[in-house]
Design brief:
There is one protein chain. This protein has one domain. The longest helix is centred in the middle third of the chain and has 14 residues. By secondary structure, the chain is of the alpha+beta class. It starts with a helix and ends with a helix.
Length: about 80
């Protein structure tokens, strides 16, 4: 079963940098949470470790990893 485009787009993880560049928000659909920018590298490392620790999750963390990699690149952090 393929989800309708609207639902697929709502399911995409996004990492949004605040206007003052001091925090970022991860969001997917109705879920969201904000973090200080200085924790971006920590969260990227955390999400990269999840597929290793929980291989049955498959690609469930791929969207989070991609969003955080993009955010880190925008911040000039190592990816």
């Amino acid at each position: 079963m393929t989800l309708p485009r609207r639902l697929r787009e709502n399911a995409r993880m996004k990492a949004i940098l605040s206007d003052d560049r001091t925090s970022f928000t991860l969001s997917r659909g109705a879920w969201s949470n904000s973090y200080p920018v200085d924790e971006a590298a920590h969260w990227l490392a955390f999400y990269r470790k999840q597929p290793v620790d929980f291989p049955k999750a498959g690609r469930a963390y791929a969207g989070s990893i991609a969003a955080l990699e993009g955010l880190c690149r925008d911040l000039g952090l190592p990816v």
